[in-house]
Amino acid sequence: MTVTLAQPPLRATSRSTAEAEVWAELRAEAEAALIEEPLYAGIIQATILDQRSLAQALAYRLAHRLGDGDLARLSMRDLCLSAFEADPQAGAHAVRDLVAIRERDPTCRRYLDPFLFYKGLAALEAYRVGHWLWHQGRATLALHVQSRISEVFGCDIHPAARIGSGVFIDHATGVVIGETTVIADDVSILQSVTLGGNGKESGDRHPKIERGVLLSVGAKVLGNIRVGAGAKVAAAAVVLQDVPPHTTVAGVPARVVSRLPVGEEPALSMDQSFGYGDGI
Predict the structure, then answer these.
(1) Model confidence over 224-240: pLDDT tens digits?
(2) Buried b (16+ CB within 10 A) or exposed e, 27-38
């Protein structure tokens, strides 16, 4: 799913990366890892090398991490694979999410590591399964997937939320994304970020995050408000009003502390500094 919020495109090299290229590189990395760590060889073989596609490998991995007594691994694998195969863009989304990590996380040197171990990627791809179920009218299973994501990865994403591709959820611990949240492409979200409601209102009550936004550690964005394209929300900020595009906001409550050049891409640079400027 590509989420568009009527904004100019942001550069992202991941958009041009073909699924076949990433799948081939992931398999090559898996083959090298067999030699590097023989004790993990069986898991790598079963998860990646025995699978015929990125979608199958992803379904297998998610099933082994999310399957439990209520919904066994085999059933979870079939469920995940059904979701990925039903969406013709699923492979492209997974690729853009993988490449986003490779481009933005300095600790990531190969696709294999986030594919096997990173909670943020697993939570995001599992959310996509729950989102598909939600729109199939299968709310019970969708909420089961949401619950398992929360239990296993410490990240709570409502299946009705709308999330684009090329999204990087770093660490994932403590991230909460509410039901009517909309997140555009190429957004970066760090740990303990909350995209929540503001009170007990019903209906459309959660934030709208435009393309290229960086949500720093512990940021709280509350209510049906908009964070403009290319904006930066500083660590621990509490945002209660709209954020203009290409600005940095900080504080409690958050206020504009600097303006960013239109060409700057905070979600890609991951620069969490406040910068300088006169504000508004």
Answers:
(1) 999 999 999 999 999 99
(2) bebbeebeeeee
